[in-house]
Amino acid sequence: MPEKVAYIWEIVTDKNYTGKGIANHLIKYITEKYQDFTIYSCIDLTNIASLKLHEKNGFHTLYEFEKRHDDGSISYHNMMVREGK
Ligand SMILES: CC(C)(COP(=O)(O)OP(=O)(O)OC[C@H]1O[C@@H](n2cnc3c(N)ncnc32)[C@H](O)[C@@H]1OP(=O)(O)O)[C@@H](O)C(=O)NCCC(=O)NCCS
After folding, report:
1. How far is CA 32 from each of CA 1, 7, 58, 84, rounded to the nearest angstrom?
2. Which end of the chain, N or C, is surrounded by fewer C-beta atoms within 10 Å?
3. Pairing mode, strands 38-44 and 5-8
4. Domain 5-82 CATH (choose: 3.40.630.30, 3.50.50.60, 3.30.930.10, 3.40.190.290)
5. 46 lines ligand 1 (CB under 6 A)
6. Whether residue 69 has pLDDT greater than 90
7. pLDDT tens digits for range 70-84
8. pLDDT tens across 20-31, in order?
């Protein structure tokens, strides 16, 4: 386990302002500020925008998993990681 660990809980851009580079700016700020941290972020596998955003910023897949909900539905997720320097 790395010594310094951070977790991105959620990145959300107001839907009136998507596609303008806001989330990219935010994730760059985080990865530069915490460049010596290993950063994890969990993304729904159907969330192409978020997967691409993370890949573009140096994250890669650590593992994929499925989550079974109380209503019987299943969702699929990708745990992504960006290793610290
Ligand atoms: C995912 C989200 C945060 C992206 O925010 P954004 O400010 O629109 O993103 P940006 O404009 O900074 O785009 C950065 C990169 O993300 C990816 N991206 C963003 N929107 C995309 C889309 N609709 N389709 C595919 N890729 C997309 C691209 O790689 C893009 O880089 P590029 O423009 O050079 O191709 C935004 O769509 C959102 O708030 N979604 C709902 C909440 C959510 O799902 N959050 C993530 C939970 S983990």
Report:
1. 21, 14, 12, 10
2. N
3. parallel
4. 3.40.630.30
5. no
6. yes
7. 999 999 999 999 999
8. 999 999 999 999
Ligand 1 atom closest to the Cα of residue 53 is 16
pTM higher than 0.90? yes
pLDDT band at 2 (very low <50, low <70, confident <90, very high): confident
Site to probe by mutation for ligand 1, drawn from 27, 40, 52 as the one with most ligand atoms within 8 Å of Cβ, is 52
| Cα–ligand 1 centroid distance for 80 (angstroms) | 15
**List of E strands, the chain:** 5-8, 38-44, 60-68, 74-82
- Ligand 1 and 10: CB distance under 6 A: yes
Domain ranges of the chain: 5-82
